[in-house]
Amino acid sequence: MTEQTGAIEAGLPLERRKSSGLWTDAFRRLLRNRLAIIGGILVIFLFFIAAVGPLITPWTYYEQHTDEVIANRNRPLAPMQQIEGVDHLHYLGTDELGRDLLSRLMDGARISVMVALVVQFVVLVIGIPVGAAAAWFGGRTDSILMRITDVVYAYPDLLFIILLGVAFKETFFGRAMDGLLLVFVAIGLTSWVTMARLVRGQLLSLKETEFVEAAKAIGVSDRKIVTRHLLPNATGPIIVAVTLGIPAAILAEATLAFIGIGVQAPRASWGSLVADGNSYVRSFPHLVIFPAMCIAVALISFTFLGDGLRDALDPKLKGKQ
Amino acid sequence: MLTYIIRRVLWIIPVLFFVSVITFALMHTVPGGPWAREKEIPASTQELLNDKYGLDEPVVVQYLNWIGPLHFEDGNVECCGGILAGDLGPSYKYIDRSVNEIIGNGILVTMQLGILAFLLSVAVGLPLGIIAALGHNKAPDYSATFISVIGISTPTFVSSILLIVIFSVTLGWLPTNSLKWETDPTTWILPIVALSLFPIAQIARYTRASMLEVTRRDYVRTAHSKGLGQRTVVIVHMIRNALIPVVTILGPILAFLITGSFIIEFIFSVPGIGREYVTSITRRDYGMIMAMTMFYAVAIVIMNLVVDVLYAYIDPRIRYS
């Protein structure tokens, strides 16, 4: 304040105080959180592998090196195992059909990233309008929409996904993207409820603020108030919910793949790789351990990043630490 | 408070009604029926079977028959059948056994598994979170956080396989499956532990966060400054208040333990109902699908209700309108 008055008195151009907006502050707090940084780097790495995987992978996920498995007395190749007379190495070994495990894991990363994106897309597309409409219109609309979310909430998630998966397995929709699209959409259809409730809660409290009243007073339309004033102010919690919803979706997909629902052979997600490897777990634990580690690391990374984002965006903590 | 409880209880009825309608509709849009077997059943026999089980009636009539108590068949009305008369209908997989019979025992086992896992989760998760918060940013905090991160990021099916490999295959201490659930309690240990890991981690995380939140409160500072011992402050002032938000996740956790145990039942061959669920869906065993979906939905709805009521009871500041 004094600096500014000083500047005015001296006839200098008024220099604006360096604004420290919500996002800059939050970003700075995020950078200080070591776990969140580690999580963030791993998440970026996962997205990178998913994007360029097919370009850098030595083999495709379905290519079989049958002769090497036969040379190995019909057993899966162990990690780094060199077969005589073969000039390449399978860094993480192969499965019983001679398919390179590393290549399959890289394709699995693609599937996990797709789960993350498609499910959260469905969640946002359904959750935000439902939550916003419930909060803004209130009354009858609110109670009807919230009762619908109650029903979805009471419906056992995985069971609904399995039911859909089995119901549409043979249709075009069920075969799209190697059977993955169906599972993604089904997971999305069961997960939007949390988002709808979150958006509704956020908007309800924002609705009473002065800036909304001001906007109403100058005659801004309902739609513009919601999209320009309310939703941008609820972005923080929405981002956190999306980040924390991703590991839940990856976990759901892996679990379904493990019991044989969703991804169709020869394609394999990390969950189905664990299921396949399970039959060899005594003699070839690497077939279970590597995909299991991939799942665990992906879940940890998103959780750390989500936790970090929540701490960074939570205004209650502002000023502390 | 009482009107709130009554309203919530009454609201369960429409929720369950919609859940049943959705399930029934989904089941019947699926091409193929319960008579699809590896060995084709002749068309005339299928017709007779359809007639016997009332599957030749329109879907709406079939639904009404399932609900009961009136039973419509070939233009006649009889009494009494359907779920309102306590009859869940026949199973189409095990001809001549009723659904009541099949899931009667299974439900007990599933609930036993779920409740024991719940007790273990609370007994381990709460102290873990409290210890972590009291030793904030010290060794106990880091080790407790490490344990809960592992718990959250390891899918149930992965931890189950690892537990089997370690304790059954390598060490040989515990049986690999739980087929002898009723007679041999040692078969309980691995499924219960595997099922509890995730909830333990979640409870620990929530408890830790909630305890840390409470530490900063004025009344805790007051308690300290009036000379109360650390023990009293922690037990009387902190834990009691910190547990309020934790209670809200216990409902979803108990619901998760009961509905989510099917993957555990699948891996360990626990004779609960979860094991039957996936097969009953792929077999189009209508009666079983309906019964189990409803059981899970009832479990979830009741769990949520209990938590909301408990929440109001523990924290008198919460008032329901």
Describe this protein's structure.
The complex is a heterodimer of chains A (about 325) and B (about 325). Helices cover about 70% and strands about 0% of the residues of chain A. Chain A contains 14 helices and no strands. Chain A has helices spanning about 1-10, 20-30, 35-55, 65-70, 100-135, 140-155, 155-165, 170-175, 180-205, 210-215, 220-235, 235-260, 270-280, 285-315. The two termini of chain A are about 25 Å apart. Mean pLDDT of chain A is about 80; it is low at about 315-320. In chain B, β1 (about 70-75) and β2 (about 75-80) form a beta hairpin. Helix content of chain B is about 70%, strand content about 0%. The mean pLDDT of chain B is about 80. Chain B has a two-stranded antiparallel sheet with strand order 1-2. Chain B has twelve helices and two strands, in the order αααββααααααααα. In chain B, α4 (about 100-135) packs across α7 (about 185-215). The interface between A and B is large, with 38 and 43 residues.
Low-confidence spans of chain A: pLDDT under 50, at least 5 residues? Answer: 317-321
Overall mean pLDDT of chain B: 79
Strand order of the biggest β-sheet of chain B? 1-2
Distance between the termini of chain B: 9 Å
Largest interface: A-B, 38 and 43 residues
Rounded to the nearest angstrom, the radius of gyration of chain B is 24 Å
**How much of the residues of chain A is beta strand, in percent?**
under 5%
Largest sheet of chain B: 2 strands, antiparallel
Describe the global form of chain B.
Answer: flat
User: Radius of gyration of chain A over alpha carbons?
Assistant: 25 Å
Largest sheet of chain A: none
Mean pLDDT of chain A: 81
Oligomer: heterodimer
Shape, principal axes of CA atoms of chain A: elongated
- Derived structural class of chain A: mainly alpha
User: What's the total number of strands of chain A?
Assistant: 0
Strand portion of chain B: under 5%
Q: What's the number of extended β-strand segments of chain B?
A: 2
List SSEs of chain B in N-to-C order: HHHEEHHHHHHHHH
